[in-house]
Amino acid sequence: MLSRITVIVFILLVFAAITFSVVTGQNDENTTNQNSSSQNIKSQPGQCVVASQPEGNQKSQSLNPELPTIGVLVVDDVLLTEVAAPFDVFGKHDANGNQRFNVILIGKEQRPYLSEEGLTLVADFSFSNAPPLTALIVPGAFQMQEILEDQTIVNFVRKSGQDAEYLASNCAGAFLLGKSGLANNRKIVTYVGGGQVLRSTFPKLKVQNDSNTTHVIDENIISSNGNLTSYISALLVLEKMTDKSHRKYVESQLYLNRLKKWNGELE
């Protein structure tokens, strides 16, 4: 009798051990599959995997320390073309396929900004972590008065503009240059119809007639009416920083010659 009980107990123990082994193996397999799936999501090309980041902790753009850095200011209600133009111009590689510049977007905070036209632009750097700039480009914005009253923005433009080799403004960006004092006793132009207000607000500026002046070069300060003429100011700064042949090459990549040929009529 005791022998039979011993055999039965032994069989039950063996069965329990086998069952435990199978269940454990299944759990390990599920865990392995989950880890494998997670690794596949991270490493598999072509998949959109969005990892959430705390606000204000965005990863800054990596820069080539051997290249000049072009900083473009971004604010709320910024005019889109006046940001896009310098990126379009300075972002073009040269005839040999070489990158010539770092081009970055700098905001008061490193966050998304909504342009006047409704496109969201995300700042690469904030004022606090922006690198030294070779050139600073200041676009216009729809709510320019609010920007002029923001002393943090004014101080950044003043400090970065003083340290930069070149300074450019488009459209109402000229008002920010006036507020910073960087353009005192220098020739400058603003948006069409805005010259009189610019002159009365900042009498130390040598404001040019915007009715017949598209752009102005005064040594290292370049200004334009803004909008599509922002391409002109960007190309002028580009030529100063490189040479005429590279500017011509970039113009060809922009198909600027095609635009010059257009007579404004629909065919």
The parts where pLDDT drops under 50 for at least 5 residues are 5-57
> What's the alpha carbon Rg, rounded to whole Å?
30 Å
Number of discrete domains: 1
CATH class: Alpha Beta
CATH A-level architecture: 3-Layer(aba) Sandwich
Calculate the terminal CA-CA distance, rounded to whole Å.
Answer: 107 Å
Strand order of the largest sheet: 5-2-1-6-7-11-10
Would you give the CATH topology? Answer: Rossmann fold
Q: What is the helix/strand order?
A: HEHEEEEEHHEHEHEEEHHH
Shape call: globular
Can you identify the CATH superfamily? Class I glutamine amidotransferase (GATase) domain
Question: What is the chains' assembly state?
Answer: single chain
Number of strand elements = 11
Can you tell me about this structure?
- Helix 6 (195-201) links the parallel strand 8 (187-188) and strand 9 (206-207).
- The chain has helices at residues 2-43, 80-90, 144-148, 151-163, 173-180, 195-201, 230-241, 244-253, 256-261, and strands spanning 69-73, 102-107, 112-114, 120-122, 125-126, 135-138, 166-170, 187-188, 206-207, 215-218, 221-224.
- The radius of gyration is 30 Å and the shape is globular.
- Helices cover 43% and strands 15% of the residues.
- The protein has one domain: Class I glutamine amidotransferase (GATase) domain (Rossmann fold, 3-Layer(aba) Sandwich).
- It is of the alpha/beta class and 267 residues long.
